[in-house]
Amino acid sequence: MFLLVKNKIICNVSKIIIQYFPLVLILQKNYVHLAKQNKISIKMNLVKLSVIMFLMVFSFSCTKSIKTKSSEAILIGNYLGQESPNNSAVIFADGIVSTEFNERDMTFSPNGNECFYSLKGASTYSIIHIIRVNNIWQKPEVATFSGIYSDIEPCFSPDGKKLYFASNRPILENGEVKDYDIWFVEMTDSGWANPQNIGTPISTEANEFYPSFTNDGTIYFCARNNKSIGGEDLFYSELIDGKYQEPKNLGDSINTVRDEFNAFVEPNGKYIIFTSTGWGQGFGGGDLWISFRKENNEWQKPMNMGENVNSEYFEYCPSLSPDGKYLFFTSNKLSTIKNSNKKLTYKKIVEDLHSTLNGSQNIYWINKDFIQSLNK
Q: CA 183, CA 208: separation in Å to the nearest integer?
C-alpha cells in the first residue's frame, strides 16, 4: 500500500544532501574552470553556487509529492495526520493502523498525543501504542504493559491519567490465565505503571469487557452473568466517594434476550452506541445501534445507525475522538471491487490477501455530525 506524502512532510535534509551532493561537486568543478577563465572571485561564487544548489534541491524535494510506503511515512498533525472524514465512513490510517491484519478498538488520549488500539497476533491480542513527539507520530509499538497475555479494548479515563482495558491476565503474578476482567494502568513520571485489576464489584468469575466512561466516572461495560436478560448485556457502575458501586443492568430498554455488547457512552451520558443482534433486522451480522437518554434519564428505543456506518458485514467497537468530532468503529468489510467472471491468478489472490480490505478487522472513522439527526 502506497500513499503520496505531500506538503505536510518534514524533509530529511541529510538524505537530500547525500543524494544530490555529487551533482553539486560536478557543477562546482566546472564553475571553477569558468571562473578562472573569467578571472572572477572563485571563493565567493562557489559559496553562492553551493547555497543556490542546495536550496534548489531542498525546495524541489520538499514540494514534490514523494511516493513512499505508508509504514515509512512521516506523520504529523492531529489523528496521525490523516485527512478528516466526511459523512461517509472511511478506513483510518490505511496501511499504518488499518492493515491486512486484524485491528480494532481505537482510542486517543484527551490531549490527542497518544493512541492505543488492539492488534491480533497469531494466537492472542496485544495493545498497540503510538505516541506523538514534537508533533511527529512515532512508529507503532506494543504497549509497555501488553504483549504477554490477551489484552484488548483500551479506553482512557476522562482525565487521561488512567488507561483501562480488558485482559485475561492472572490476578496474581505467575498465576493461571483466567477469564477477562477490566484492568487499568496509571500514568507516572516514568510512563505507564504496572496493570491493576479494577476489582470487585465489577470483576467477577464471569467475563467483563469494553469499558467506557462518563465524565462523572460512571463506567459502562458488557458482561454475561446471572444478571443478564439474555445473552451478553450492557451494565453500568457509578463511582461514589472513589468506589464503584454494585453494577446495574441497563434494563430491557437497551438489552434484549440476544446480545448487546461493546458500548460507548457519550461523556455527558447523552447517548450510548453499541452492537446488537436483538433489535431487529440490520444490515449485516452485527450493526451499531444508538439510544438517546430522555430528560427523565430513561433510554429511548435504540435506532440502527444506518448505512453511514453499518454494512452487510460486522460493525462494533465504537468510540468518539477526544474533541468529539469523529466516531471510530471496527468493521470487517471486504473490498467492493469484484472480479466478475474473470479468472483469478495466483498473483491476484495473494495481492488481495495482502490488501487492507481482505475481510480482516479494520478501524474506520466518520464525522459524527450525522448522529444528532438520529435523535427523533
A: 10
Which one of 3.40.50.2300, 2.40.50.100, 3.30.365.10, 2.120.10.30 gives the CATH number of domain 74-374?
Answer: 2.120.10.30
- Classified as helix, coil or strand, 353 is helix
Band (pLDDT 50/70/90 cuts) for residue 67 is very low
Q: How far apart are CA 96 and CA 356, in angstroms?
A: 10
**Cell numbers for 328:** 471510530
One-letter amino acid for residue 303 of the chain: M
For 106, phi then psi, to 5°, come to -80, 135
Span 295-347, pLDDT tens digits: 899 999 999 999 999 999 999 999 999 999 999 999 999 887 665 678 999 99
User: Model-level pTM greater than 0.85?
Assistant: no
**Spatial separation of the C-alpha atoms in residues 266 and 310, rounded to whole Å:** 19
Residue 368 in contact with residue 333, Cβ under 8 Å? no
Residue 254 has, within 13 A of its CA and on its CB side, a CA count of 32
Long-range residue pairs from 25-32, CB within 8 A, at least 24 positions apart, any chain: 27/53
Taking the C-alpha atoms of residue 293 and residue 214, their distance in angstroms, rounded to an integer, is 13
Cβ pair 296, 315 in contact under 8 A = no
Q: Name the segment(s) of the chain with CATH classification 2.120.10.30.
A: 74-374
Helix (H, G, I), strand (E, B) or coil at 125: strand
DSSP SS3 for 127: strand
Beta bridge partners of 76: 136
Q: How far is CA 33 from CA 43, 45, 313, in A?
A: 12, 12, 70
**Which has the closest alpha carbon to 119: 99, 94, 145, 95?**
99
